[in-house]
Every structure is written in C-alpha cells, then in structure tokens.
Amino acid sequence: MLAEGKLSKQHREEKRREDKNEAQMTDFDAILINTMVIRQIHRDKVGISIAAEDGRHGIIRAWALVERKEGDRQIEEAEAVKMAMSKATEEGWHSIIIASKYKKAQRESQQEE
Predict the structure, then answer these.
(1) Is 42 domain-assigned?
(2) What is the b/e burial string over 24-34, where b = at least 16 CB atoms within 10 angstroms of the residue's CB?
(3) Is the pLDDT of residue 104 over 70?
(4) How much is the pLDDT for 98?
C-alpha cells in the first residue's frame, strides 16, 4: 500500500510537470503582434505600425499605414488592433497575443529646438 501511495504521488508530480510544459509550449507557439499608433502633434497625420513576431525567429511580418486624418485616440488604437486581427486571419495564425501602444510625436524641427 505504501509503494502504491508513492507511485501515485510520483505520477501526480510528473503529470503536473507535463501540464506546465505544455502550457509553456502553447505560449511559445503564440504569435506576438505589436501595434503602435503614432500621432504627429500639430499635423493631421497618424501612423499605424504592426509587427508580428514569434518566439523562435523574431519579427516575421510587418505592416505600416499613414492616415491623413487625426481622430480620437481610442478609435485610432482600436483600428490598429482591428488591423492586427485582420492580418492574423489572413496569415492563418490562430494563437495570437496583441500588445498595443500609442505615442505622440513632435515634428523633427521642433525636437531640435
């Protein structure tokens, strides 16, 4: 009876390790998609960049878009996430993680002053 108890405990420990390793592999296989919205201050331009990377090869795809009209920050960010989801669907990626950033940038001439 004691031997069976030890075996069961070992079996449970191995199962726990296997489950943990499987969860880590799933995270590793997910594609990380970074979106960034950059709005130029005092201009009507908004840039959206999307970069997809995996845990093995780094950046595997990238897209960029410049819009002429400035809008609401939350809407611009939502558009970037929507574009990232569309690109992921086009690429056939099923396991994705999306990280979104928003940045205000000054014109180069103002930064030098």
Answers:
(1) yes
(2) eeeeeeebbbb
(3) yes
(4) 95
